[in-house]
Amino acid sequence: MLVDGKPMRSIWSTQAGGSVSIIDQTKLPHELVIEQLHSLGDAAKAIATMAVRGAPLIGATAAYGIALAARADASDAGLAEASAVLTATRPTARNLKWALDQMHTALIDLPIDQRVDVAYQRADAICEEDIQINKAIGAHGLPLIQALATAHPERPVNVLTHCNAGWLATVDWGTATAPLYLAHQSDIDLHIWVDETRPRSQGAALTAWELGHQGISHHLITDTSSGHLMQTGQVDLIITGTDCVTATGDVCNKIGTYLVALAASDNHIPMYVATPSPTINWCLCDGRKEIPIEQRDEEEVTCMSGRTKAGQIERIRITPPTTSAMNYAFDVTPSRLITGLITERGLVEASKEALSRVFSDAAANTQANP
Q1: Residue 2, SS3?
Q2: What end-to-end distance do the CA atoms of the chain give, in Å?
Q3: Looking at the 3D structure of the chain, how many domains does it have?
Q4: How many other C-beta atoms lie within 10 A of the C-beta of residue 55?
């Protein structure tokens, strides 16, 4: 995607067998800062502190983390330790475990002296695969927007998003944003409602930043505004991303997604979830009971950061000093509230039967290798 008119990815390997570059997303939207990852510790810190975030990008970063770790210790014990360190960084995103499994499979049977080169090659391939998956999601989601544009040629198609499932959450294109970017490139009159997504404000800081650089019309709204917009006929379609999907179609995504889904159901507005296949956990059946929900530091709720009129980035407390906060990072939306999943293989009903039919190879592989 474009930043100031120039193509950019969220993560890239700067040289064969060397450091890895990332956009430090904690600095956006005020500063575009490129950081270098030189070690396993750097990769783990980037994931834990959310310098990189979004399930696909977390997976890509973890893959490079294994490659960086292999430079120091490519033994079985060294790779196992690296995998344990990376697994502990974020508990919810499915792609983290998926990427680590991919790296293990690629490396475990190789001689130690071949593992570093192959680790970088596999991490690079995971990034390229992510881009292709996201482009395919965009292609399958585009007809939903085209149909609305045809039905209402007199006005823009109004799409609501929640959190950031854009190219910053992936390697490029994004999941939920891929259909939007393709629609924009097809000259469809498009307008996006961007949920701010408290407490980390990924919508305000990241999705709005992305859309602005792509030249797509959008408005930022408070999370509590989406229901009103739906009631008053100002939302045609909802597309979100996801951090984990169960084999039965339950979706775990950024906190607040469940409330968006409830309002959408009440107002008969279609809600689609952009779902790359690596995000599906075929071992889970009940999202509400089986998906671990990350709880983050309460300071993300009690404090906010922003740029002052003087140009300084400052962090301020917005609550009484005696007030504690709970900070659940995700919630689970049951499959019954989801109109459909937009996958790289097409639109799929959010059900066990439909998912296992479309992704029969992945489901069978999980059953054979739980």
Answers
A1: strand
A2: 36
A3: 2
A4: 29
Q: Are residues 99 and 63 both part of a single domain?
A: yes
Residue 64 makes CB contacts below 8 A (sequence gap 6+) with 11, 13, 20, 37, 43, 120, 123
Contacts with 17 (C-beta within 8 Å, 6 or more apart), sequence order? 71, 116, 117, 120
Give the domain extent around 286. 137-368
3-state helix, strand, coil in the chain (%, to 5): 45, 20, 35
- Residue range 86-138, pLDDT digits in tens: 999 998 878 999 999 999 999 999 999 999 999 999 999 999 999 999 999 99
Q: Do 80 and 179 fall within a single domain? A: no
**Residue 344 phi, psi (nearest 5):** -70, -10
Task: Assess contact for 13 and 123: CB atoms under 8 A.
Answer: yes
Q: Residue with structure tokens 């995998």?
A: 83
Give 366: exposed, middle or buried? Use CB within 10 Å, 0-12, 13-18, 19+.
middle
Q: How far apart are CA 310 and CA 296, in angstroms?
A: 31
Q: Is residue 92 within 8 Å of residue 253, measured between CB atoms? A: no
Reply yes or no on whether the pLDDT at 270 is more than 60.
yes
Indicate whether 141 and 107 sit together in one domain.
no
- The mean pLDDT of 11-21, rounded to a whole number, is 88
Q: Are residues 101 and 142 in the same domain?
A: no
Catalytic residues: 243
Buried b (16+ CB within 10 A) or exposed e, 170-195: bbbbbbbbbbbbbbbeeebebebbbb
pTM exceeding 0.90: yes
Residues 114 and 200 in one domain: no
Does the pLDDT value for residue 367 go beyond 90?
Answer: no
- Rounded to whole angstroms, the Cα distance separating 129 from 315 reads 38
CA–CA separation, 55 vs 311, rounded Å?
32
